Amino acid sequence: MKPPILPGYAVFSKKGRDKGRYFVVLYTVDADFVMISDGDTRKLDHLKKKRRKHLAACPHEFPELLALYS
After folding, report:
1. Does the residue 12 lie in any domain?
2. Is 40 domain-assigned?
3. Does the N terminus or the C terminus of the chain have fewer Cβ atoms within 10 A?
């Protein structure tokens, strides 16, 4: 079973300039978009809006990052 693309989960970018990079989903914008951060080029004060279909979910969850962001 494929892990969900939900806040707190790690994702892998399949398309775009950031292809091949790992991110953490911080919150859901709507059914198609999420806001992501990698802590390196995309910090918490400069999030990236990304389509869900361009991301692959990973089985790793980071709930402590959601606590910091909230």
Report:
1. yes
2. no
3. N
Residue 69 within any structural domain of the chain:
no
- Domain residues for the domain of 2 are 1-27+48-62
Instruction: Supply 15's token pair.
Output: 């398309």
Q: Using CB atoms within 10 A of its CB, is residue 66 exposed (0-12), middle (13-18) or buried (19+)?
A: middle
Q: Which amino acid is at 70?
A: S
Task: Supply the mean pLDDT for the chain.
Answer: 89
Token reading at 12: 């892998």
In a domain, 52, yes or no: yes
State the amino acid at position 10 in one-letter form. Answer: A
**Cβ atoms within 10 Å of 19's Cβ, excluding its own:** 10
Q: Which residues pair with 10 in a beta bridge?
A: 24
Q: Which pLDDT tens digit goes with each residue over 32-48?
A: 999 999 888 888 889 99
**Residue 59: burial class (beta carbons within 10 Å; 0-12, 13-18, 19+):** exposed
